[in-house]
Amino acid sequence: MKVDKSTLEKVAHLARVEVPKEMEKQVIADLEKILTWVEKLNEVNTKDVEALTHMSFERNALREDDPKNTLTRSQGLANAPEHDKEYFKVPKVLD
């Protein structure tokens, strides 16, 4: 597929990117190579291929989300660099 300057400008506008004048020829050439490659994919026979919704047939192996206490508060705070008896102390990030 041929890409001209107006097509490049339209695509750049839609993508919200600026293409410097000195790079226009290179970007047009790259876009043409990409579009040629995509057109080549249309030659592949996919008649008997099922559409995929996921890239693998694996199912999620999720555990039940059962609440339980695995650490006590004192165990959780034991390795903290700064804490009071109940909370972590962290540096102030907002004024």
Entry keywords:
95 residues, flat, mainly alpha
Write a structural description.
- 36% of the residues lie in helices and 0% in strands.
- By secondary structure, it is mostly helical.
- The longest helix has 18 residues, at 24-41.
- The protein is flat.
- It starts with a helix and ends in an 18-residue tail after the last helix.
- The model has no long low-confidence stretch (mean pLDDT 89).
Number of helices: 3
Helical fraction equals 25-40%
- Ends: how far apart? 55 Å
Mean pLDDT over the full residue set: 89
Give helix and strand order, one letter per element, not per position: HHH
Q: What is the tally of beta strands? A: 0
Biggest sheet overview: none
How much of the sequence lies in strands comes to under 5%
Category by helix and strand content? mainly alpha
**Per the principal axes of the C-alpha atoms, what is the gross shape?**
flat
The residue ranges in which pLDDT falls below 50 over 5 or more consecutive positions are none
**Radius of gyration over alpha carbons?**
28 Å
